[in-house]
Sequence to fold (155 residues):
Amino acid sequence: KDNGFDSHTRFRFNRNGFMKHIYSKINPNKLILSLMRYNDISKYRTDICPDDEYLQISGRKLERGLKVKAHKHTPIERKIDITQEAWVVFEGCIKGTFYDLDDSILYETDIRKGDIIVLFRGGHSLEVLDDDTIFYEFKTGPYLGIGADKEAINE
Fold:
């Protein structure tokens, strides 16, 4: 359960907000997930994902009147060999169970309204705890079908 302090848990706190990173017990240099709670989002941009991960997500409280100059992103060829995903809960609550590289349970937590969790590697499952829970799920693509994209973990 989410007890906060384990050998594989690292926290980052600065003016940009509070972030929880969970690393593998099998390979302590491998980041399994990042978690940011709604109440920890600040007025400064907080990069939830390290720069070397495929999925890039940031969070920030925005004030009325803020403008971002018009821009576009240039084409860059990238090679992606892993599916990463993120969950954002809009209503309700989800219990997430997250697995290490050897498929052992590494971490469990409830993800509530406004929270975001980014899954870089390892496995996961979810259980919906509240009726009418709404969440968005983002994944790297392209999607090649369930047979190519998923492998069951024996619970």
Observations:
- The chain has one helix and eleven strands.
- The chain has a mean pLDDT of 87.
